[in-house]
Amino acid sequence: MPITRRTLLATATALAVAATSSAAISAESDTIKIGVLHSLSGTMAISETILKDMILMQVADLNAKGGLLVKKVEAVVVDPASNWPLFAEKARELVVREKVVAVFGCWTSVSRKSVLPVFEELNGLLFYPLEYEGEEQSKNIFYGGSVPDNKAIPAVEYLMSADGGNTKRWILEGTDYVYPRTSNKIIRAFLKSKGVADEDIRENYTPFGFTDWQTEVAAIKAFGKSGKKTAVVSTINGDANIPFYKELGNQGVKASEIPVIAFSIGEEELKGIDTKPLVGHLAAWSYFQSVKSPENQQFIAHWRDYTKDPRRVTNDPMESAYDLFQLWAQAVAKAGSTDVARVSESIVGLKVRSPTGYDVTMNSNHHLTKPVMIGEIKSDGQFDIVYQSKPIAPKPWNPVLAENKDKN
Fold it and tell me: Which pTM value belongs to this model?
């Protein structure tokens, strides 16, 4: 084929376009962009805002050390405003428009369920820091919290033990969405396997942001007057916790009579409550600020230095967010790339020294091996750790709900 002037011009134009595109890609590649997808307004802002700050702190730390792959890491923060469909919209915006290589975010399971199909469709990566109900395993999600198998069930077993008060009667109190309902289905089945009768289990759900707790707390008191030791297992989420705990105090629901063990309230949520009437009530997590380890003392000091607030608290979801970010950074360095497939392969088996003082490991099922701890609320809003396990390998698929696995 003869080389004509038109061919030469076309070739020159193509080369110029290619050179321009390469220059643009090169300029873009000087920065690694990640997304931060947490509610900064609405009912979940009380819990999620602190996680946004934790990711920003770690980005600043990483950049102070020279970045990642000799590139600066940039965090793109969006606010889905406790609006579950908006989580999906913002996730798509982060991956498609902002071209982030990973997203750190979500709190509630309904928000995670909302974004899951987006990350699977676009082949993005979500690092999810919360304990949740299990019954899920996605190649595009890495889960930083616990599942019922290594949190809820050990917590219930503790309450059944002599140390936990030999509880015989149970109130399952939750916010009305997937995490509390699925968790309580698993807990109810476990209780029945231990011989607990249906009439000794009370189950109740309220909406997000619920505030009118007088009637329900009165019902809790009435249920506890059977003569059998009674406990409340709480999966209440978000700012509904504040009026719930205030009403417990108002009605004199003492931990010595009807202890409440919470799966979704920690140091940050207790900041807005007079905790003196709540002393002795419980929470189950994999981390508390009161953990005694050199790693935790450094973690707390660094957080307070970053926020310039000597009284800022730490909590379990922050610890999970820390672990996930550190593991992601290790995986990118190991892979020498931010490519989803290479990072996903590299991260399995990696460990990070958690503020708990344990090595936390990422398993092939995309869940972390972590301990479970149970803490009693103290008058200063901190927790006295009364039980601590060794790290437990998580089983996201609970045998009670095994039939669901084939449907996912």
Answer: 0.90
